């Protein structure tokens, strides 16, 4: 039997009377890459936030292996160290250098040795091509560089699961690639990830499984090839069509 | 303007003594105000029930009554209910009572200026709420608070001029006293201005340096 790292069971999330996630259930195996896609406002960010207990939930449960992850729950701090998260933007600490951003949690939360953590941070920075930025402040970096640092910062805590919430959505097009490449590399090394993205070709390349979320439900769950070439549901079809453009070249000239 | 230098040299030691007293009370009062302000700001930021209401009432009272009235209250009213005070500790207490609310407002708006995502990303790195506050939120909030903080320190030092009302021999008291005694009004007032400048100018300069430093410390997106 496959080993499940994450189990989401009957997850229900409401903001007031607005039910944003309705009885969501899915499991993630170790080493699996899940891509979550869906229209704006369908609850993708909320789902990720519930998985590492940044939001209280109204029903169901989130299990990391056998431990319940919920706000105020015991071991929450240790559990969060096993769940890394990278946000859309502005999540680096502006008052700390890149290196200090990365080493803060390992040193203060995990009580690891400074020398060891810094060595690891430098090695990871080198891997994403930012070794020379270790002493820079976040404001001195481009958007793409910031996001690569945010990924390294999450990695340095040694999480078992990584959550990415549209980490390229705020970037200029020419910087998107450098960030996506880092994520592709992580996937290649067997990291377990849940990725929310609007980059459809990237999703297709990196996903082991696609979850299509709409109206707070998982409407379709399929391997990427099948999802992108032959979606089963009407809603998924319509959603994917919004990424296609019909040629207008054949249009008759207007007077 | 004719200044009698003989009078000036004669008055100088008195002013020096008074300035030391003003600085001393100002220092302790402001340090206490910072402690009170930080405490109140943290309670309000975390929306701790009951306590935050009490603090809101304190802030309203403290900000909307003159320091003079606060001092009179501490000096004349408190002993009536068995809390004895001397003039100096009264001055410190009054300044702390007034300054606490001003500092609280500055620190609170500093805390609230930090985007929630800062807290959330610290949490998702596995930092506890306390460590997040200490390593991530407070350093940023304090830097944002620096300009307001410096303005408050200068404001509070200037407010010390009402201490003379409770017979504290501060600068203002000394000036009024000397004018009453010898009618050397110009010399007395001249020294008063000079001594307040001697106290306030360095604070102002240090404040600007501090503001420049935190601006350079890597803020903005
Ligand atoms: N803190 C909140 N308070 C109230 N409602 C919220 C809150 N956060 C999200 N919502 C609502 O929950 C719904 C889902 O939001 P969410 O941010 O999860 O969507 P999303 O799928 O990530 O959208 P996008 O693709 O635009 O990022 C939306 O209707 C939103 O208005
Ligand atoms: Mg979102």
List the helices and strands and how they pair.
The complex is a heterodimer of chains A (255) and B (221).
Chain A: E1 4-15, E2 18-29, E3 33-37, H1 44-51, E4 59-64, E5 67-68, H2 76-81, E6 83-86, H3 98-108, H4 114-127, H5 143-155, E7 161-165, H6 173-188, E8 192-196, H7 200-206, E9 209-214, E10 217-222, H8 224-229, H9 234-241
Parallel strand pairs in A: 3-8, 3-9, 6-7, 7-8
Antiparallel strand pairs in A: 1-2, 1-4, 4-5, 9-10
Helix pairs in contact in A: 3-4, 3-5, 5-6
Chain B: H1 5-45, H2 51-63, H3 67-77, H4 87-112, H5 116-124, H6 129-159, H7 171-182, H8 185-216
Helix pairs in contact in B: 1-4, 1-7, 1-8, 2-4, 3-4, 4-6, 5-6, 6-8, 7-8
Magnesium ion is lined by residues 44-45, 165-166 of chain A.
Report on this structure.
The complex is a heterodimer of chains A (255) and B (221). Chain A is an alpha/beta fold. Chain A has a domain at 1-77 and 193-255: P-loop containing nucleotide triphosphate hydrolases (Rossmann fold, 3-Layer(aba) Sandwich). Helix content of chain A is 35%, strand content 25%. The model of chain A has no long low-confidence stretch (mean pLDDT 91). With 221 residues, chain B is an all-alpha fold. Chain B contains eight helices and no strands. In chain B, helix 1 packs antiparallel against helix 7 (171-182). The A-B interface holds A 49, 52, 54, 77-78, 80-81, 83-85, 87, 90-97, 104-105, 108-110, 137-140, 150, 153-154, 157, 163 and B 115, 117-118, 120-128, 131, 135-136, 139-140, 143, 217-221. The complex binds adenosine-5'-triphosphate and magnesium ion. Magnesium ion binds at residues 44-45, 165-166 of chain A.
């Amino acid at each position: 039997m496959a080993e499940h790292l994450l189990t989401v069971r009957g997850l229900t999330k409401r903001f007031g009377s607005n039910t944003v996630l309705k009885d969501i259930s899915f499991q993630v195996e170790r080493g699996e890459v899940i891509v979550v896609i869906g229209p704006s406002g369908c609850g993708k960010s909320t789902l990720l936030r519930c998985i590492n207990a940044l939001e209280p939930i109204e029903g169901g449960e989130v299990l990391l292996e056998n431990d319940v992850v919920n706000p105020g729950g015991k071991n929450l701090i240790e559990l969060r160290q096993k769940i890394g998260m990278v946000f859309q933007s502005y999540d680096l600490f502006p008052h700390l250098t890149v290196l200090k951003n990365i080493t803060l949690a390992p040193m203060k939360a995990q009580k690891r040795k400074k020398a060891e953590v810094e060595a690891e941070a430098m090695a990871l920075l080198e891997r994403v091509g930012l070794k020379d930025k270790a002493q820079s402040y976040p404001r001195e970096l481009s958007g793409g560089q910031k996001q690569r640092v945010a990924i390294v910062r999450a990695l340095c805590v040694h999480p078992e699961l990584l959550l990415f919430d549209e980490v390229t959505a705020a970037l200029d097009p020419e910087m998107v690639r450098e960030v996506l490449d880092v994520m592709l590399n992580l996937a290649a090394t067997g990291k377990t990830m849940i990725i929310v993205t609007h980059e459809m070709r990237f999703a297709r390349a990196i996903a082991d499984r696609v979850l299509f979320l709409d109206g707070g439900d998982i409407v379709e769950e399929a391997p990427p090839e099948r999802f992108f070439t032959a979606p089963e549901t009407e809603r998924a079809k319509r959603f994917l069509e919004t990424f296609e453009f019909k040629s207008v070249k054949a249009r008759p000239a207007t007077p | 303007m004719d200044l009698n230098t003989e009078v000036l040299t004669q008055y100088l030691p008195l002013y020096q003594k008074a300035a030391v007293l003003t600085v001393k009370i100002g220092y302790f009062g402001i340090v206490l105000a910072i402690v009170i302000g930080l405490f109140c700001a943290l309670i309000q930021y975390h929306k701790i029930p009951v306590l935050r209401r009490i603090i809101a009432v304190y802030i309203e009272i403290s900000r909307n009554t003159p320091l003079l009235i606060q001092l009179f209250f501490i000096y004349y009213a408190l002993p009536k209910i068995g809390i004895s005070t001397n003039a100096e500790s009264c001055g410190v207490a009054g300044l702390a009572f007034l300054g606490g609310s001003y500092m609280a407002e500055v620190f609170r708006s500093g805390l609230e200026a930090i985007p929630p995502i800062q807290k959330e990303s610290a949490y998702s790195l596995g930092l506890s709420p306390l460590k997040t506050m200490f390593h991530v939120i407070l350093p940023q909030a304090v830097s944002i608070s620096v300009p307001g903080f410096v303005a408050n320190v200068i404001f509070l030092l200037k407010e010390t001029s009402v201490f003379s009302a409770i017979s504290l021999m501060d600068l203002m008291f000394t000036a009024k006293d000397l004018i009453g005694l010898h009618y050397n009004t110009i010399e007395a007032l001249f020294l008063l201005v000079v001594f307040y400048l001697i106290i306030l100018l360095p604070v102002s300069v240090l404040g600007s340096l501090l503001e420049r430093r935190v601006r350079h410390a890597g803020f903005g997106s």
